[in-house]
Recover the amino acids of this structure.
């Protein structure tokens, strides 16, 4: 049986939300996609929604309220049984090499993908 995680998109840009949703549907015929508009919404969602299956988080860096790096700091404080079921991919259009390096070096981040990411990137990761 293929890997079929749920997805949480942490992204404030409505166009990026729409594009990502379409890519996930087309490329993976995804389970429900949950959307948080910033890191704070995402942390609150993770605390309120028990994770029974595996969860993939697609995380933007630049957002209001709580950015991607602040989210990763808060994520580190969550219970291990929550973190163990989650895989995080940072999605960003940043060209800042320090931000890219910081994301890639975070122990909770599986990979860094440039936005817009390609359908093949998604399929290679999950099919």
């Amino acid at each position: 049986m293929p890997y079929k995680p749920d997805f949480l998109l942490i992204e404030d840009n409505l166009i990026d939300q729409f594009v990502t949703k379409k890519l996930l549907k087309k490329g993976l015929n995804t389970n429900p996609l949950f959307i948080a508009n910033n890191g704070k919404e995402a942390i609150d969602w993770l605390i309120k929604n028990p994770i029974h299956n595996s969860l993939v988080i697609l995380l933007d860096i630049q957002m209001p309220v709580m950015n991607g790096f602040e989210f990763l700091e808060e994520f580190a404080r969550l219970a291990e049984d929550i973190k163990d079921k989650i895989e995080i991919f940072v999605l960003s259009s940043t060209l800042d090499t320090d931000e890219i390096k910081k994301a890639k070096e975070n122990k909770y981040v599986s990979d860094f993908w440039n936005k817009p990411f390609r359908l093949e990137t998604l399929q290679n990761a999950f099919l």
